[in-house]
Specification:
With about 220 residues, the chain is an all-alpha fold. The chain has 10 helices and no strands. It has one domain. It is globular.
Amino acid sequence: MVLLKPELLIKTIGLLGVFFVLFAELGLFFGFFLPGDSLLFTAGILASQGLINFPILLLVTFSAAVLGDNVGYWFGHNVGRKLFEKEDSLIFKKKYLIEAQEFYEKNGAKTIVLARFIPFVRTFAPIVAGAAAMHYTTFLIYNLVGGLLWAVGLSTLGFFLGNIPIVKHNYEYVILLIVFGSVLPIVIHTLKDEEKRKTIKHHLTHHFHRIIRKK
């Protein structure tokens, strides 16, 4: 699947496509599954190889990050509360929104920055901020800082590491490491929650018994 192969995705859709993928992940609640972290890092690597204009890449990714979060905030401010009443569907899971709200309440306004580096949460954090009527000026400041650290930061990291031979020839493993690192906070948060641990244990036990019965 092209979405799971950042290099192929970038070469297929170009910088305009990169903009819309990042914008969709941050600004549209159904874009939570898109590969933002790996896309940014890979784009930086391709820029180091001369395949993408690096200054334009930074402008595109930063703009997408800031505009995407702004749209998420606007959406949350206008219709966000209704999402908490919405039942699960194929592309919407209420638990992601609730987890973003819990993360937001625990960390306050800095969530807008921190959430950038956590899949799923970064999609719903601006929506929650809008739904909670967070002061827009405060949101915008943290939005700009978060966009700079995440979009520009990861792209720049890929650009400079991309010239290191071991990274250049094995960057697929680096991408996997980034993906693992981005979901690690979610795994830790889940395992620390006793109720979630019980739910996971129940599902694993049930699945194991089904396999045994089939044998």
